[in-house]
Amino acid sequence: MRIDVISLFPDFIAQCAVFGVTGRAVERGLLSLHGWNPRDHAQGNYRRVDDRPFGGGPGMVMLIDPLRSALNAARAADPRPVRTIYLSPQGAPLTQAKVHELAGRERLLLLCGRYEGIDERLIAAEVDEELSIGDYVLSGGELAAAVVVDAVARLQEGALNDAESAVQDSFEDGFLDCPHYTRPVSHELGSVPDVLMSGNHGDIARWRRQQSLVRTMRRRPDLFDESALSKADRKLLEQ
Ligand code: ADE
Questions:
Q1: 115 assigned ligand-binding residue
Q2: Do domains 2-153 and 170-238 have the same CATH topology?
Q3: What is the tens place of the pLDDT at every residue in 129-164?
């Protein structure tokens, strides 16, 4: 998969390709990351990329033309169809289901804004989808783009080692993940739950499912979908 990112700070995005699971996905040829700086597509001595907002008010708005030229250059760099996504707090919330959909595409083009935003005409004409990583305001789309890159990279076939399998992640089945423990069994901060030491795989699976359901109910009642519960789940919740 190929991801292109339009950003005034393309070095920030390049760092994604250096560390951890994303770095490994790049190393294994499962993902390629390309940054494009709209300043390289701006005109004049000052290479302006922004201007004051019509109607007044604080901040600056990113100009149409440098962004459009950078978008077109990125699109032309590879013949495969590409989905253009603008990261902004006005976007639809990014979910694990959305991440799966994006991870299945051959190409993504992520557009990062700075300042007060981007001229709305560019968004209307060039953007397929607007996504937000949460109900808070970042000073630019770069961190949000890095979130998308990471979440999508780890779902590429072969990016995770067996031990890191994504199947049991939080949200994969609609519920939060269960707690995890490792050595030592006994520690001044507490002991590992007996069931995990029992060797009984059925009991362990049931305990994990129960923990996962109870956590979701308590911490994220907004996610807790009663209708997704099986008969066995209901029994676990009664215990
Ligand atoms: N840019 C600024 N804030 C953002 C957010 N919450 N999500 C995505 N992009 C953003």
A1: no
A2: no
A3: 999 999 999 999 999 999 999 999 999 999 998 767
Residue 135 marked in a binding site: yes
Instruction: Give the residue whose CA is nearest to atom 10 of ligand 1.
Output: 88
112 CA to centre of ligand 1 in angstroms: 9
Mean pLDDT calculated for residue range 78-95? 98
Contact (CB, 8 A) for 126 and 75:
no
Helices (H), ranges, the chain: 10-14, 20-27, 64-76, 96-103, 120-126, 142-153, 201-219, 231-238
Amino acid at 221: P
From the CA of 105, how far away is ligand 1's center (Å)? Answer: 22
* Ranges of each domain in the chain: 2-153, 170-238
Main-chain dihedrals φ then ψ at residue 207, nearest 5 degrees: -60, -45
Asked whether the whole model's pTM tops 0.90, one would answer yes
Active-site amino acid positions: 89, 116, 154, 169
- Per-residue pLDDT tens digits for 178-207: 999 999 999 999 999 999 999 999 999 999
Cα 40 to middle of ligand 1, angstroms: 24
Domain 170-238 has CATH 3.30.70.120: no
Decide: 115 in ligand 1 pocket, CB within 6 A. no
Q: How many CB atoms lie within 10 A of CB 44?
A: 6
> What is the rounded (10 degree) CA torsion for 226, 231, 233, 234?
70
At the topology level, CATH places domain 2-153 in Alpha/beta knot (3.40.1280)
Residue 59 among known ligand-binding residues? no
Distance of CA 125 to CAs 59, 64, 68, Å?
23, 10, 10
